[in-house]
Amino acid sequence: MAITKIYNGSSWANGRLKHYTGSAWIDVPKYYNGSTWEDLNAQLVVSGSDASVINYRLLAICYAGVQFNSSGVEYACTPAGAFTTSRGNWLDFGLSSEVWVSRVVTGDSLNWQDPGAGRWQLNTTRQFGLSRSLNGFRTTTVTFSFWDAASGGNLLDVSQVDLSAEYDNGS
Protein backbone atom coordinates (compact mmCIF):
# COMPACT_ATOMS: atom_id res chain seq x y z
CA MET A 1 0.00 0.00 0.00
CA ALA A 2 1.52 3.34 -1.07
CA ILE A 3 1.19 6.47 1.03
CA THR A 4 1.57 9.94 -0.39
CA LYS A 5 1.00 13.47 0.89
CA ILE A 6 -2.06 15.27 -0.48
CA TYR A 7 -2.99 18.89 0.18
CA ASN A 8 -6.52 19.02 1.64
CA GLY A 9 -7.03 22.78 1.36
CA SER A 10 -5.36 23.78 4.61
CA SER A 11 -2.54 21.31 5.27
CA TRP A 12 -0.68 18.29 3.91
CA ALA A 13 -2.17 14.96 4.99
CA ASN A 14 -1.39 11.31 4.32
CA GLY A 15 -3.42 9.90 1.44
CA ARG A 16 -3.73 6.31 0.32
CA LEU A 17 -3.40 5.28 -3.31
CA LYS A 18 -5.61 2.27 -2.48
CA HIS A 19 -8.95 2.33 -0.71
CA TYR A 20 -10.11 -0.22 1.86
CA THR A 21 -13.78 -1.15 1.35
CA GLY A 22 -14.10 -2.92 4.70
CA SER A 23 -13.21 -6.30 3.27
CA ALA A 24 -10.56 -5.63 0.60
CA TRP A 25 -8.13 -3.03 -0.75
CA ILE A 26 -9.17 -1.72 -4.18
CA ASP A 27 -7.38 0.47 -6.77
CA VAL A 28 -9.73 3.44 -6.51
CA PRO A 29 -7.58 6.39 -5.41
CA LYS A 30 -9.01 8.30 -2.45
CA TYR A 31 -7.70 11.15 -0.35
CA TYR A 32 -8.69 12.35 3.08
CA ASN A 33 -9.80 15.99 3.05
CA GLY A 34 -9.68 16.35 6.82
CA SER A 35 -13.13 14.92 7.54
CA THR A 36 -14.04 12.42 4.80
CA TRP A 37 -12.41 10.29 2.10
CA GLU A 38 -12.94 11.69 -1.40
CA ASP A 39 -12.49 10.02 -4.77
CA LEU A 40 -9.51 11.34 -6.75
CA ASN A 41 -11.42 10.46 -9.94
CA ALA A 42 -13.61 13.48 -9.25
CA GLN A 43 -10.58 15.74 -9.84
CA LEU A 44 -9.37 17.23 -13.12
CA VAL A 45 -5.69 17.51 -14.02
CA VAL A 46 -4.93 19.49 -17.18
CA SER A 47 -1.54 20.46 -18.64
CA GLY A 48 -1.45 21.99 -22.11
CA SER A 49 1.87 22.16 -23.96
CA ASP A 50 3.80 25.43 -24.20
CA ALA A 51 5.91 24.23 -27.14
CA SER A 52 5.93 26.38 -30.29
CA VAL A 53 4.62 25.21 -33.67
CA ILE A 54 6.93 26.62 -36.37
CA ASN A 55 6.21 25.34 -39.87
CA TYR A 56 7.82 26.04 -43.27
CA ARG A 57 6.55 25.06 -46.71
CA LEU A 58 7.97 25.63 -50.19
CA LEU A 59 5.58 26.57 -53.01
CA ALA A 60 2.39 25.70 -51.12
CA ILE A 61 0.15 27.19 -48.45
CA CYS A 62 1.70 26.68 -45.02
CA TYR A 63 -0.30 25.94 -41.84
CA ALA A 64 0.53 26.07 -38.13
CA GLY A 65 -1.89 25.10 -35.40
CA VAL A 66 -2.82 23.01 -32.38
CA GLN A 67 -5.68 20.64 -31.71
CA PHE A 68 -7.16 19.49 -28.40
CA ASN A 69 -9.07 16.28 -29.03
CA SER A 70 -11.77 14.76 -26.86
CA SER A 71 -9.59 11.81 -25.85
CA GLY A 72 -7.22 14.21 -24.08
CA VAL A 73 -4.38 14.33 -26.61
CA GLU A 74 -2.95 17.57 -27.99
CA TYR A 75 -1.66 17.67 -31.57
CA ALA A 76 0.34 20.10 -33.71
CA CYS A 77 -0.37 20.29 -37.42
CA THR A 78 2.09 19.59 -40.19
CA PRO A 79 2.96 22.34 -42.70
CA ALA A 80 0.31 20.75 -44.96
CA GLY A 81 -2.38 21.19 -42.27
CA ALA A 82 -2.79 17.64 -40.92
CA PHE A 83 -3.05 17.33 -37.13
CA THR A 84 -0.84 14.26 -36.76
CA THR A 85 2.07 15.34 -34.53
CA SER A 86 1.34 14.49 -30.88
CA ARG A 87 2.33 17.08 -28.28
CA GLY A 88 1.37 14.77 -25.40
CA ASN A 89 -1.76 14.72 -23.28
CA TRP A 90 -3.55 17.94 -22.42
CA LEU A 91 -5.84 15.93 -20.10
CA ASP A 92 -3.83 14.05 -17.49
CA PHE A 93 -6.75 13.01 -15.29
CA GLY A 94 -10.54 13.40 -15.54
CA LEU A 95 -13.09 13.66 -18.33
CA SER A 96 -12.76 15.93 -21.36
CA SER A 97 -16.48 16.76 -21.09
CA GLU A 98 -15.69 18.54 -17.80
CA VAL A 99 -13.11 20.91 -19.36
CA TRP A 100 -13.57 24.12 -21.37
CA VAL A 101 -10.87 26.06 -23.21
CA SER A 102 -10.70 29.75 -24.07
CA ARG A 103 -8.03 31.53 -26.08
CA VAL A 104 -6.45 34.97 -26.29
CA VAL A 105 -4.64 35.77 -29.54
CA THR A 106 -1.71 38.22 -29.58
CA GLY A 107 -0.40 39.09 -33.04
CA ASP A 108 -1.81 37.88 -36.35
CA SER A 109 -5.33 36.46 -36.26
CA LEU A 110 -6.15 32.76 -36.44
CA ASN A 111 -7.25 32.83 -40.08
CA TRP A 112 -7.51 29.06 -40.64
CA GLN A 113 -8.93 27.22 -37.60
CA ASP A 114 -10.65 29.08 -34.78
CA PRO A 115 -13.94 28.39 -33.01
CA GLY A 116 -13.89 32.03 -31.85
CA ALA A 117 -13.87 33.87 -28.55
CA GLY A 118 -15.47 32.39 -25.44
CA ARG A 119 -15.13 29.03 -23.74
CA TRP A 120 -15.39 25.83 -25.73
CA GLN A 121 -16.16 22.47 -24.18
CA LEU A 122 -13.53 19.86 -24.99
CA ASN A 123 -15.99 16.97 -25.32
CA THR A 124 -15.35 17.43 -29.04
CA THR A 125 -12.14 18.23 -30.93
CA ARG A 126 -11.15 21.92 -31.05
CA GLN A 127 -8.59 23.32 -33.51
CA PHE A 128 -6.77 26.64 -33.52
CA GLY A 129 -4.47 27.67 -36.36
CA LEU A 130 -3.26 30.07 -38.99
CA SER A 131 -2.09 29.82 -42.59
CA ARG A 132 0.13 31.74 -44.97
CA SER A 133 -0.49 31.67 -48.74
CA LEU A 134 1.84 34.48 -49.87
CA ASN A 135 5.61 34.68 -49.58
CA GLY A 136 6.59 35.42 -45.98
CA PHE A 137 5.57 34.67 -42.39
CA ARG A 138 2.38 34.73 -40.37
CA THR A 139 2.93 34.48 -36.61
CA THR A 140 0.90 34.80 -33.45
CA THR A 141 0.93 33.84 -29.80
CA VAL A 142 -2.12 32.05 -28.41
CA THR A 143 -2.73 31.81 -24.67
CA PHE A 144 -5.05 28.94 -23.79
CA SER A 145 -6.91 28.87 -20.47
CA PHE A 146 -8.52 25.62 -19.31
CA TRP A 147 -11.58 25.81 -17.04
CA ASP A 148 -13.87 23.38 -15.23
CA ALA A 149 -17.05 25.28 -16.19
CA ALA A 150 -18.60 27.09 -19.16
CA SER A 151 -18.51 30.31 -17.12
CA GLY A 152 -17.05 31.09 -13.71
CA GLY A 153 -15.52 27.95 -12.25
CA ASN A 154 -11.89 27.19 -11.58
CA LEU A 155 -8.89 27.90 -13.78
CA LEU A 156 -7.16 24.53 -14.25
CA ASP A 157 -4.16 25.47 -16.41
CA VAL A 158 -2.78 28.11 -18.77
CA SER A 159 -0.52 27.37 -21.72
CA GLN A 160 1.00 29.73 -24.26
CA VAL A 161 1.83 28.62 -27.80
CA ASP A 162 3.69 30.52 -30.50
CA LEU A 163 2.42 29.65 -33.99
CA SER A 164 4.39 30.47 -37.12
CA ALA A 165 3.70 29.54 -40.75
CA GLU A 166 6.21 30.46 -43.46
CA TYR A 167 5.37 30.26 -47.16
CA ASP A 168 8.34 30.28 -49.53
CA ASN A 169 7.58 30.96 -53.19
CA GLY A 170 11.07 29.80 -54.21
CA SER A 171 12.36 33.14 -55.44
Task: Please give the structural blueprint.
Layout: E1 3-7, E2 12-16, E3 19-20, E4 25-26, E5 30-32, E6 37-39, E7 45-46, E8 53-58, E9 62-68, E10 73-77, E11 83-89, E12 91-93, E13 100-107, E14 120-121, E15 126-132, E16 136-147, E17 155-168
Parallel strand pairs: 8-17
Antiparallel strand pairs: 1-2, 3-4, 5-6, 7-12, 9-10, 9-15, 10-11, 13-14, 13-16, 16-17
Short description:
The chain has no helices and 17 strands. With 171 residues, the chain is an all-beta fold.
Report on this structure.
β9 and β10 (73-77) form a beta hairpin. This protein has strands at residues 3-7, 12-16, 19-20, 25-26, 30-32, 37-39, 45-46, 53-58, 62-68, 73-77, 83-89, 91-93, 100-107, 120-121, 126-132, 136-147, 155-168. The strands form 6 sheets. Strands 8-17-16-13-14 form a 5-stranded mixed β-sheet, with no helix packed on it. The model has no long low-confidence stretch (mean pLDDT 87). The protein has 2 domains: 3-42, no CATH class; 45-168, Immunoglobulin-like (Sandwich). Helices cover 0% and strands 54% of the residues. The N and C termini lie far apart (66 Å). It is mainly β and 171 residues long.
Q: What is the terminal-to-terminal distance?
A: 66 Å
CATH architecture title of the largest domain = Sandwich
Radius of gyration: 20 Å
| Range of helix content | under 10%
Low-confidence stretches: none
Q: What is the subunit organization of this protein?
A: single chain
Sheet with the most strands, sense and barrel status: 5 strands, mixed
Percentage of residues in DSSP E strands: over 45%
User: Could you please say which CATH topology of the largest domain applies here?
Assistant: Immunoglobulin-like
Element order, helices and strands?
EEEEEEEEEEEEEEEEE
Class based on secondary structure composition and strand pairing: mainly beta
Shape designation: elongated
Q: What is the average of the pLDDT values? A: 87
Overall tally of domains: 2
